[in-house]
């Protein structure tokens, strides 16, 4: 025999092995038969499983395929299923199988796993390892699965073609393993809880069908990788949190469906996307896309929505200044902040970070301390009136573009505290350039880690160790010294100028009560670094006294010092909320009066002329109504503006309606809800009544409805409407955040009337009834848009009861009341504006419903001597005329006894006198 086994022995061993394995199949199949009910035809243990329904065996009587789809099977699969080592196909989809999924590891012949539409409860770790022949994995619609990560062990399955795992409770990131799948065509992972960004290995993959839509928390990061997915036909990325711009998709010539809606995409829609040859269907709504409205060919079904930030409602180029600023934003990767703040086609219309002169030319761009990364766009050079450019304290890289030296009006450019490099362009001597805090400025930093080519033998060479620098240490030191000297000289000169101006300025202040002094003392810079050095930005404005008209006797200007003091220097603990346009702080005056201070970011209203701003403040501070949050005063501090409002102790309606548990509030009763609705209707009706249509609410939604301790509502954040060229009033509207509340006609015509508010009010009524948000991304598509869904329910009233907020649990009488409000909500959200009632009608409908519970004394609405038939300019004139004689505010406040109408806190006047006359 020797050391080699004989052929006979080998054969014997082999047959023993085979029979043992076959025996294993019997055991597993018996266990299988015993575990599922109802037992499929012929499945009884002990009989030859190769004859069982849906089972196929190979020539060795080993199970090769089990196929029992849609057999209403329940029960659990045997955990040792993977001892069926010859299995190639397992099709058990659309049953009611539950329990843990068996492990399939090491089933090296398994090609197809269909387990979708079942009730499995968990997936064991490593369940899909070693599946070297796998082509199809289908696990979609297993909603009972405990959260599990995407099976990264699939990287072994280099033959995989299709992965379906939508609605399967997968959480965590998508692993970067797609380079292993040259044949993958279908990846469907919709409706899971995937987070993180798209994996880089999507680049170059052959995926055709990419469904990653509707993740619970949302996928994040850019979608740039799509540009390298040349095979894609369907891209469904909607309802996530993707950011950044839509990439160039010119390589994706087969792409027919591009669903990008409901993300946070910014930037200009690239021409390569608009002209995609196979495109049939594209949705872009509910992003913050910018630039020209994209004009797709007629053959494409397009949905753009109303909440993007396109410069116009019609296609065509943007205003040149707008186009330039968009290019500037592009170099910064189109940050969300800019996409939200820069809407419309006029860069001088309240664009944050931008200041204009009276001729509508941008004179200042202030990006200081915004956390921006990216580069400085050479396009700044197109802003030919630019005087000041603040880019300091960001994370900017690259060079200072040479083109900036051509700006004829430039006085100051501050790029301090970034990561800029390269040679400094030579500016005119009158330009103040601040570059401190850029460790590589003046150095050539190669794009990638190229080694310095020379000078390796210099004795001090190694200690220099400047990686990638082609400039010798001596040159660098020289440059640094030169820059330092330059900076010192600039500082000295500006300090001199500053002292001069300061003396001049203070000399002008005669009447400390005039209010002008407040604004001027604030000019002492504290914004742009370099303590003690004035900001040109701030001092420039005050050099022309006409630019800061004084509110004579208006007494609504409040100093920044007072606001600092009462908000504990804008401390974190005092933050009441954050909006798109700034942070709201709580403050307490020394007499105990509480206030809310809205600090608009970096001059959120920046470009609005002071005259206009103050005129608006002058009017708004006089609009007092029991159901409107009162504006008590304002403060201008350099580029920054602060608005002071009455404080509302119970937060906003959204917190009580949607997040009450989280905030520890009791749920609102129906009675409270109707009362709130009536309060809101009355507040908005009053706004509409003022000078006809000159007031319209800008942004009517639950977070702008504030509550008092007794759950009465006041409407916040309304604005003044400007006189449009056609003599009609239009609203200065900022539509950020109004998802779901915006009437359809806005999309078509951009027209804003009081009926826009009526529509939004109708949506709020629906929210009060259902307890659901206007836009609820956690709901399936057909239910996510409240108005659409609710209006469908209204067609068949039988469904209404099911749609009511479960915490309400109405009795018959309450249900009756809910039906009335539901009907009103339906009318308010009519598609055609003229079919919607006015707010007065809403008041009439809601009034009796409230009084059913609580007979209330007749509230005569407070018009405060504002003649409803006066035009807005007339009213303004009259108010201004009255300013000197009887200050209307005190008349109004003190003639009222109702505590719910706030008087201007007396604390202001005192603080103002004592604090600011220095
Ligand atoms: C799968 O195979 C590998 C190597 O062949 C082995 O180490 C591992 O234990 C096997 N796993 C199972 C669950 O059988
Ligand atoms: C099984 O899942 C289906 C669909 O996911 C679901 O409708 C059904 O209620 C579940 N059955 C059980 C018993 O959990
Ligand atoms: C989604 O997953 C994250 C963790 O990745 C978790 O914090 C969050 O609660 C999950 N959300 C839901 C709705 O399951
Ligand atoms: C995709 O891969 C190509 C080739 O490797 C590369 O040039 C390109 O930059 C990559 N695209 C992205 C978005 O990563
Ligand atoms: C476009 O996509 C939407 C949403 O997936 C779908 O409802 C619609 O039918 C599609 N239209 C076309 C022309 O494919
Ligand atoms: C900036 O000016 C240059 C030269 O006049 C012009 O070619 C370019 O289109 C302008 N860019 C923008 C964004 O207006
Ligand atoms: C710059 O980026 C780094 C990390 O990328 C970050 O930690 C830092 O806060 C950023 N600095 C500024 C000023 O935004």
TrEMBL record:
The chain crosses the membrane at residues 476-495. Residues 570-850 form the Protein kinase domain. Residues 1-23 form the signal peptide. Keywords: ATP-binding, Disulfide bond, Glycoprotein, Kinase, Leucine-rich repeat, Membrane, Nucleotide-binding, Receptor, Repeat, Serine/threonine-protein kinase, Signal, Transferase, Transmembrane, Transmembrane helix. It is found in: Membrane. It is an enzyme of class 2 (transferase). SMART domains: LRR_TYP, S_TKc. It catalyses: L-threonyl-[protein] + ATP = O-phospho-L-threonyl-[protein] + ADP + H(+); L-seryl-[protein] + ATP = O-phospho-L-seryl-[protein] + ADP + H(+). Residues 444-469 are annotated as: Disordered. Pfam families: LRR_1, LRR_8, LRRNT_2, PK_Tyr_Ser-Thr. GO terms for cellular component: membrane. ATP binds at residue 598. It is a single-pass membrane protein. GO terms for molecular function: ATP binding; protein serine/threonine kinase activity. The keyword ATP-binding applies. This is non-specific serine/threonine protein kinase.
């Amino acid at each position: 025999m020797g050391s080699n086994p004989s052929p006979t022995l080998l054969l014997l061993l082999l047959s023993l092995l085979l029979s043992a394995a076959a025996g294993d199949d019997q055991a597993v199949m018996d266990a299988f038969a015993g575990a599922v009910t109802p037992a499929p035809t012929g499945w009884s243990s002990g009989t030859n499983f190769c004859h069982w329904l849906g089972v196929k065996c190979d020539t060795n009587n080993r199970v090769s395929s089990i196929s029992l789809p849609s057999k209403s099977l329940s029960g659990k699969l045997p955990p040792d299923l993977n001892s069926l080592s010859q299995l190639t196909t397992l099709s058990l989809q659309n049953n009611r199988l539950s329990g843990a999924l068996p492990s399939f590891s090491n089933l090296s012949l398994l090609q197809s796993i269909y387990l979708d539409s079942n009730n499995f409860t968990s997936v064991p770790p490593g369940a899909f390892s070693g599946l070297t022949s796998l082509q199809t994995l289908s696990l979609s619609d297993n909603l009972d699965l405990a959260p599990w990560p995407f099976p990264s062990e699939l990287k072994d399955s280099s033959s995989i073609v299709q992965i379906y795992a939508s609605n399967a409770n997968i959480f965590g990131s998508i692993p970067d393993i797609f380079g292993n799948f040259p044949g993958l065509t279908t990846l469907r992972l919709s409706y899971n809880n995937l987070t993180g960004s798209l994996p880089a290995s999507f680049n170059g993959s052959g995926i055709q069908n990419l469904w990653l839509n509707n993740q619970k928390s949302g996928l994040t990061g850019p979608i740039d990788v799509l540009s390298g997915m040349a095979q894609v036909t369907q891209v469904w990325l909607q309802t996530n949190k993707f950011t950044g711009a839509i990439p160039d998709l010119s390589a994706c010539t087969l792409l027919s469906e591009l669903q990008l809606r409901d993300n946070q995409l910014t930037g200009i829609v690239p021409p390569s996307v608009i002209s995609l040859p196979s495109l049939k269907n594209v949705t872009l709504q509910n992003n913050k896309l910018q630039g020209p409205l994209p004009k797709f060919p007629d053959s494409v079904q397009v949905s753009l929505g109303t909440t993007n930030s396109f410069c116009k409602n019609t296609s065509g180029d943007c205003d040149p200044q707008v186009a330039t600023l968009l290019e500037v934003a592009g170099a910064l990767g189109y940050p969300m902040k800019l996409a939200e703040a820069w809407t419309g086609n006029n860069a001088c219309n309240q664009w944050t970070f931008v200041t204009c002169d009276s001729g509508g030319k941008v004179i200042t761009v202030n990006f200081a301390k915004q956390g921006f990364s990216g580069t400085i766009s050479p396009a700044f050079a197109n802003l030919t009136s630019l005087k000041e450019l603040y880019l300091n304290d960001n994370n900017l890289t690259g060079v200072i573009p040479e083109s900036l030296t051509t700006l004829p009006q430039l006085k100051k450019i501050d790029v301090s505290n970034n990561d800029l490099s390269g040679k400094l362009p030579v500016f005119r001597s009158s330009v103040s350039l601040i570059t401190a805090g850029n460790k590589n400025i003046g150095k050539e930093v190669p794009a990638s880690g190229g080694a310095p080519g020379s000078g390796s033998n210099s004795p001090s060479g190694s200690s220099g160790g400047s990686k990638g620098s082609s400039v010798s240490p001596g040159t660098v030191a020289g440059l640094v010294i030169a820059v330092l000297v330059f900076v010192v000289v600039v500082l000295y000169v500006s300090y001199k100028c500053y002292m001069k101006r300061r003396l001049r300025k203070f000399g002008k202040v005669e009447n400390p009560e005039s209010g002008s002094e407040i604004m001027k003392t604030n000019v002492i810079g504290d914004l742009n670094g370099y303590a003690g050095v004035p900001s040109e930005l701030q001092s420039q404005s005050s050099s022309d006294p006409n630019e800061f008209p004084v509110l004579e006797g208006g007494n609504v200007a409040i100093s920044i010092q007072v606001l600092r003091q009462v908000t504990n220097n804008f401390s974190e603990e005092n933050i009441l909320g954050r909006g798109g346009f700034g942070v709201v702080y709580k403050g307490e005056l020394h007499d105990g009066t509480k206030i809310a201070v809205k600090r608009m970011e970096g001059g959120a209203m920046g470009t609005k002329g002071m005259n206009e701003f103050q005129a608006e403040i002058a009017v708004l501070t006089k609009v007092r109504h029991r159901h409107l949050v009162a504006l008590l005063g304002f403060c201008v501090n350099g580029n920054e503006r602060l608005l002071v409002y009455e404080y509302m102790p119970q937060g906003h309606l959204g917190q009580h309606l949607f997040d009450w548990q989280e905030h520890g509030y009791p749920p609102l009763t129906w009675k409270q809800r109707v009362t709130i609705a009536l309060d809101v209707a009355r507040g908005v009706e009053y706004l509409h009544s003022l000078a006809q249509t000159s007031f319209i609410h800008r942004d009517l939604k639950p977070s702008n409805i504030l509550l008092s301790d007794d759950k009465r509502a006041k409407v916040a954040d309304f604005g003044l409407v400007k006189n449009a060229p056609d003599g009609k009033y239009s609203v200065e509207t900022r539509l950020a955040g109004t998802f779901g509340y915006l009437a359809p006609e806005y999309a078509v015509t951009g027209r804003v009337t009081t009926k826009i508010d009526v529509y939004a009010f109708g949506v709020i009524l629906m929210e009060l009834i259902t307890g659901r948000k206007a836009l609820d991304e956690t709901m399936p598509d057909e239910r996510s848009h409240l108005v659409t869904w609710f209006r469908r329910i209204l067609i068949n009233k039988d469904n209404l009861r099911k749609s009511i907020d479960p915490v309400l649990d109405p009795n018959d009488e309450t249900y009756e009341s809910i039906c009335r409000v539901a009907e009103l909500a339906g009318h308010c959200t009519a598609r055609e504006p003229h079919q919607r009632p006015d707010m007065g009608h809403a008041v009439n409908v809601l009034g009796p419903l409230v009084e059913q519970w609580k007979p209330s004394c007749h509230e005569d609405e407070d018009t405060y001597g504002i003649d409803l038939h006066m035009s807005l300019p007339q009213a303004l004139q009259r108010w201004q005329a009255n300013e000197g004689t009887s200050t209307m505010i005190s008349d109004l406040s003190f003639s009222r006894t109702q505590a719910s109408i706030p008087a201007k806190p007396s604390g202001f006047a005192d603080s103002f006198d004592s604090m600011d006359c220095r």
